[in-house]
Amino acid sequence: MLFAGHGAILASPPADTQVEVLMHSTLSKPFGMWIQNKGLGRFLHLLLPLRGNLRPCGTRREISLQAGSRPLVLLLVVGGASLLLAAETALVGVTSSFETPSQGRVILALEPDDAAAQHWLGCVYEDTDPAQSVVHLRRATEINPYGRLYWSDLASACRSIDDPQCVDQTRRRLLTLCPMVPLYHLYAAQSFLKANRLDESVAEFRRLLQLDPTYAPSAWFSLRPVLEPDRIFQQVLADSPSSEIKVGYVEFLSTQGEDAAAYRIWKRVAANSSIFPFSLAQPYLDHLIGLGRTDEAADVWHDLRRLGIVEASGKVEEGNLVFNGDFEQSPLNAGFDWRSGPSIYLGVDFSAAGAYRGARCLRVDFTVKRNEEYEPVYQIVPVLPNRSYKLEAYVRSEEITSNTGPCLRVQDTRQPGFPDAVSETTIKTTPWHPVRLYFSTAAETRSVRVSLWRPRGRVYPTEISGSFWLDAVSLQCMDCPGGKSALESQL
Questions:
Q1: d(CA 464, CA 292)
Q2: Which of 40, 52, 86, 306 sits at 20 to 30 Å (Cα–Cα) from 472?
Q3: CA 463 to each of CA 274, 277, 403: distance values in angstroms, whole numbers, following the listed order
Q4: For residue range 180-216, what is the model confidence (pLDDT) as tens digits?
Q5: Which domain holds residue 262?
Q6: What is the pLDDT at residue 382?
Q7: How far apart are CA 6 and CA 22, in angstroms?
Q8: How many C-alpha atoms does 357 have within 13 Å on its Cβ side?
Q9: Which of 14-23, 241-250, 264-273, 472-481 is predicted least confidently?
């Protein structure tokens, strides 16, 4: 009989009629032991013919092997091995696919030391009997103490029954097995926090963010109820080389309405930070502008320019409060740079040729003949209250059909009822020429909205088409101390 152990190897016989069969390698060793030692293994033995010829692992048996029968012997070896491998695969599947506790108990009656079966039964009990779930999940870790999944699910089960000792044990084991997995550091940090072990919790949060900064919001939400913003920054972030996570913390505080703390932290970040992408600071900057915290926003803008994160190109005119007024670089569409408004029925080009000065200018094409209000571009500019200003730009036009053409407009960003200042319009075809307007700010004014605007036409012909160019936009304070306004005084 060929099935004399866990596998079959045909050794070269000393003569044509003899071959040694040594069972070592046909089946996997763990399953072979399972077959040998367990009740279900004995059940499978009953299914095999010639059971009496079975021998323990490693025994030798000589088989007469005539030349004509060798193919049949080889076929029996391969077929028998395939049958037992199929049985192994099926049984492994059974231990991890049952859906009810009763099915799991039947499996464990046959195989009580199967870690996978113990683990799966613990998962099945998770919703119906959490305490029993912990029993089986803990047994799985005892059988296989190196199974990360077993310890992870046991940790979850221990938290569900509020067993701090069990949680602490599983936390320590997970960090030993997988010290580089961020999620386990999060579990540890939250566990320490719940146990009022604040220093250990902070240390785990710090390590968590070193491994994966995307967990930062979870860290901030967990720590903020127990620590002040400045202390969180000092203990968790101050030594971090990552500007990204520090700026993200500033944005988090601002979105939580803690604007004063956010600004304090920003000043610490800006004072000791390396260059980072503008996109990181943009949400915080635009948040400040939207809230009307213009002085803080102007200071943040100044820091970004000082760090070289925001750079001006082209001619920088002294006293000009408009940023990128010559359109020599693509706008940021944020902060105190140009922003684009709705562009339906419009073509807007920030890098058009044929500039009044420099290499680029703004071109707006009214592509569909309609009578609509348009504001293709605008910029928020910090100003001082109770001051007089002059806005000037150079424009030209080509075949503007409406009697109501494009013009410059200035609005108070925080006082909607305050009268707008509007320049003369440009119609038909004109060469480069200056347009300007003068306005004064109110006592509460801190910023204005400078825009290119086309109001709806009220005099025939009302529908507009054609092209318009804008360049060399400047805003000057006429009576500010030293001739400087709010933003310029910081730059």
A1: 35
A2: 306
A3: 52, 43, 9
A4: 999 999 989 998 998 899 999 999 999 999 999 999 9
A5: 247-311
A6: 97
A7: 9
A8: 14
A9: 14-23
Hey, what are 410's tokens?
């200035």
Based on the structure, what is the number of domains in the chain? Answer: 3
State whether 287 and 377 are in the same domain.
Answer: no
Give the total residue count for the chain: 491
Strand 361-370 to strand 346-352: parallel, antiparallel, or no bridges (unpaired)? antiparallel
Please give the span between the terminal C-alpha atoms of the chain, in angstroms, as a whole number.
94
Q: Are residues 402 and 275 in the same domain?
A: no
Query: Is 75 among the domain residues?
Result: yes
Q: Which residues contact 335 (CB under 8 A, 6 or more apart)?
A: 278, 282, 285, 286, 289, 297, 301, 304, 310
Is residue 461's pLDDT more than 50? yes
- List the structure tokens of 423: 């320049």
Count other C-beta atoms under 10 Å from residue 421's C-beta. Answer: 18
70 — phi, psi (to 5°)?
A: -60, -45
Q: Is the pTM of this model over 0.90?
A: no
| pLDDT tens string 165-183 | 898 889 889 999 999 999 9
- Say if CB 328 and CB 360 are below 8 A apart: yes
- Residue 40: predicted pLDDT: 43
Do 412 and 361 have their domain in common? yes
- DSSP code, position 10: B
State the residue for tokens 């963010």. 209
Q: What angle, rounded to 10 degrees, do the helices at 278-291 and 243-255 form?
A: 20
The CA radius of gyration of the chain, in Å to the nearest whole number, is 39
Task: Give the number of other CB atoms < 10 A from CB of residue 152.
Answer: 20
Instruction: Based on the fold, state whether residues 265 and 356 are members of the same structural domain.
Output: no
At which residue do the structure tokens 């701090």 appear? 164
User: CB 240: neighbour CB atoms within 10 A?
Assistant: 16
Q: What angle do CA 488, 481, 414 make, to 5 degrees?
A: 60
Contact 301, 285 (CB under 8 A): yes
Same domain, 370 and 294: no
